[in-house]
Amino acid sequence: MAAADLATVVDVQSRAEAQLTPEQQARAAVLVGDASAIIRARVPDLSDPPPATAPGVIATAVLRALASPPDGNKSETVGGHSRTAAHEGGGLYLTDDELDLLRPPAPAPRGAFSIWTA
């Protein structure tokens, strides 16, 4: 049985600047599932329930993927307007900072320590 997605298309839409088309909503649904799987693979100690940051992280990654050129171009120019993908090849990816928002916090140091002097 597949694990539940960590976000929804509604989470993505609520963070989008414009209304997603039906085609974008369908693609967003697939990308939400893909991003959820990537997170579970890259953050094996993901808490249950997942952190409150999960929907925002996934929505950001999905919107980034939706905005990347569909043909995989790294950059494009139309008239006086040009756009460069922030990630080689565009597509769905999560940054290290985004993954850090999903990882459990490091435990506080405990116990005694020593300071060596010379």
From TrEMBL:
Stretch list, region Disordered: 68-90
Domain of life of the organism encoding this protein: Bacteria
Protein name, UniProt field: Gp19/Gp15/Gp42-like protein
Organism (species): Saccharothrix saharensis
